[in-house]
# Entry
Amino acid sequence: MYVAVKGGERAINNAHAWLAEERRGDTDVAELSIAQIREQLSLAVNRVMAEGSLYDPDLAALAIKQSRGDLIEAIFLIRAYRTTLPRFGASEPVDTAAMACDRRVSATFKDAPGGQVLGPTFDYTHRLLDFALAAEGEETVAPKGEPREEPTPHITEFLNQEGLIQTEVESDEVPGDLTREPLELPSTRPLRLQALTRGDEGFVLSMAYSTQRGYARNHAFVGELRIGKVPVEMEIPELGFSIEIGEVELTECETVNQFQGSKTEPPQFTRGYGLVFGQTERKAISMALVDRALRWKELGEDNLGAPAQDEEFVLYHSDNIQATGFLEHIKLPHYVDFQSELELIRKLRREADARNAAPVREAAE
# Structure
C-alpha cells in the first residue's frame, strides 16, 4: 500500500480547473460530442471497452473525452465506473458461429466455406495521408456493405472432421471472474483468456511478436478472423428459459499451429484463441498467439524459456491499469522515504571516507 502525502486543497482545485481548461482546448473550436467520438473514433472506443471490461460505446466515448484521448486513463475511468454497477446475473455463452459477419477472412483456405468477406479494414489501403479529410467538409461516403446474416461455420471445424486439429473439450465448470476475484497462479485457460482480453494491447502485441521471432516454438496461421455482432441471451429463472437482451460486436480469431505431438498427444494442429469487444483485430490475433504459447504445459511441450511461455510474467504484467498505478505512484510525494535514503547515503559516504583516510594516516605516521 502506497500512501501519498496530501498537498494543499487550493492547489489541487486549481490543478483540476487547469486540467478542465486544457481538456476543452481553444473555445473557438467546436467541442467534440460523445456521438462524434463514438462514431468516428470507434476503434479507440472499442479498445476502451475491451480493456475496461464494459461494453458500452457511449460511456467509452465519454471516458475518452474526459481523459483528453489518453486511452489508458479512459480504461481506468471505465473500470472504476463498472465497479459501481449492480450485477444481475451472467449471460449464456455467445454463439460466434451465428455471428452476422461484417468481416471474415482466412489465411489457410482461399475458398473458405461460407466465403471470404473483406469488410472494413486498413489491410488494403496505401497508408498515405488523405489530405481530403483535412478539408472538414461533407464527405461523400460510399454505401457500406451489408453483414452476412446467415450462420457462418468456423473453418477449424472442417479440419476437425478429419481429426487433424485438437478437439476443444467443453467443461461444465463455471470459470472464475477476474473482474470480481484476483488472479491466482497457476491459472486455468479461461482465466488466462480473460486476462489477455483485458490486457494492454501493446503489451500483448509485443508478446505475440516475440513468439513469431523465435521466442517460443509458435508458427501460426490465421485459421479464421471474424468480426460482427452476436446476440446476447440471459436465462430468466422466473421464465425457465433464455431471452435475448441485446447484441455485442466482437472480433474472434482462431489460429492454427503446428504440433509435432508428445507422449500424450498425436501429431496434429492445435489452436490459439482470441475474443475481444468491437473491431479489434490486432488484439485478437495477438491474444491467440500468446494463448497458444501459454498452452505448452497442457500439450506436453518443452518450455523454451520464452517470455510468452511464462504465465506469471505475461499475466502479471499485461494489465495496463495495474502497471500504470505502480509506475505513476513514484511521481507522488515520497519526502519521508527520500530523506531516509538521503541520510543513509550520507552515512555510507562518511564511513567510506573514514576507511579511505585510515591508510593515508598510517602511511604518514
In short: Residues 1-5 have pLDDT under 50 and may be disordered. Strands lie at 100-105, 220-236, 241-257, 270-277.
